[in-house]
């Protein structure tokens, strides 16, 4: 099911209009940059409708154990979207998995069953790189740290770039234990070997030890989130889009 939010973001992406603000209700529009190349260049047929846009211009791309089969057009895929964690009870995992298609995204993005959340904005992407193999789309590093943000259980993906990852309660325990054992210095070592990419470039990251110090509070936020989820016996969803 495509929500009004999806339509607005997709339409603005097509027109080259930027959306600014953490919440749609407080969104402002920025004028398109006419100096940028036409996002439709290279397509054999310019889409006549939003529905046409959603089925044109996509390419397949593997992610090792984290399969992401659909990607956005190059013009729209330069930045990872905002991401957030939410903790849900096991019964709500069953409810989620009983849903199909866009209903899973509505359930997760709407935080219908969330007991508590931790919002990561766009820093989730470089943090995931640091906790995995240094890349966003690679074959990952060693579990369970590599599963702290994304992970093995991709339970929803859309053609316009929305994703939901699930961590079951036993996995939440393993991730929480590993995050608790991760020191500031160990994270800094992981941070400095992250491969620069369009996401990090857009965020102005340089992956220095000094920068790792400024990012560490976000890792501590993740650690506190996972520890609370373990204490309450909860599963975890990570959504980005």
Commentary on this structure:
The chain is α+β, with helices and mostly antiparallel strands. It folds into two domains: 4-57, no CATH class; 76-240, YfbM-like super family (Hypothetical protein yfbM fold). Helices cover 38% and strands 14% of the residues. It has helices spanning 4-15, 50-54, 90-98, 102-109, 124-131, 169-181, 184-191, 198-203, 209-231, and strands at residues 18-20, 28-30, 83-88, 116-121, 154-157, 163-167, 235-240. It has a five-stranded antiparallel sheet, with helices on both faces. The longest helix is centred in the C-terminal third of the chain and has 23 residues, at 209-231. The chain starts with a helix and ends with a strand.
Summarize the structure.
With 241 residues, the chain is an alpha+beta fold. The protein has helices at 4-15, 50-54, 90-98, 102-109, 124-131, 169-181, 184-191, 198-203, 209-231, and strands spanning 18-20, 28-30, 83-88, 116-121, 154-157, 163-167, 235-240. The chain is globular and about 45 Å long.
């Amino acid at each position: 099911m495509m929500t009004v939010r999806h339509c607005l973001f997709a339409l603005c992406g097509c027109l080259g209009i930027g959306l600014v603000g953490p919440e749609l209700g407080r969104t402002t529009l920025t004028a398109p940059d006419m100096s940028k190349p036409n996002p439709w260049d290279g397509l054999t047929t310019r889409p006549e409708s939003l529905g046409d846009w959603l089925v044109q211009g996509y390419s397949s791309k593997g992610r090792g154990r984290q399969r992401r089969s659909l990607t956005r057009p190059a013009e729209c895929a330069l930045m990872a979207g905002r991401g957030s964690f939410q903790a849900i009870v096991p019964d709500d995992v069953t409810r989620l998995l009983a849903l199909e298609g866009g209903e899973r995204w509505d359930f997760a993005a709407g935080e219908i069953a969330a007991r508590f959340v931790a919002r990561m904005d766009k820093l989730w992407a470089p943090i995931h790189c640091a906790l995995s193999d240094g890349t966003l789309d690679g074959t990952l590093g060693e579990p369970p740290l590599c599963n702290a943000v994304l992970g093995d259980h991709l339970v929803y993906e859309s053609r316009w770039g929305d994703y939901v990852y699930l961590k079951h309660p036993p996995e939440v325990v393993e991730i929480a234990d590993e995050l608790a054992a991760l020191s500031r210095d160990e994270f800094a070592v992981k941070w400095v070997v992250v491969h620069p990419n369009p996401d990090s470039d857009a965020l102005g990251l340089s992956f220095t030890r000094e920068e790792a110090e400024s990012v560490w509070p976000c890792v501590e936020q993740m650690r506190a989130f996972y520890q609370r989820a373990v204490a309450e016996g909860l599963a975890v969803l990570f959504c980005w889009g």
